[in-house]
Amino acid sequence: MAPHPDESGRRLSSTEREEPCVTADEPMTGHEPSGGDEAWAAGDEVWDGDEEMGPAGTVLTRTEHGRTVVELQGEIDLAVVLDTTPQLYALTTAPAPQLVADLRPVTFIDCSGLALLVDIRSRVLASGGRFTMVCADPRVLRLLRITGLDEVLTPVPSPDGSRQAAAGAADGEATDRGRES
Question: Looking at the structure, do residues 12 and 92 belong to the same domain, yes or no?
Answer without folding.
Answer: no
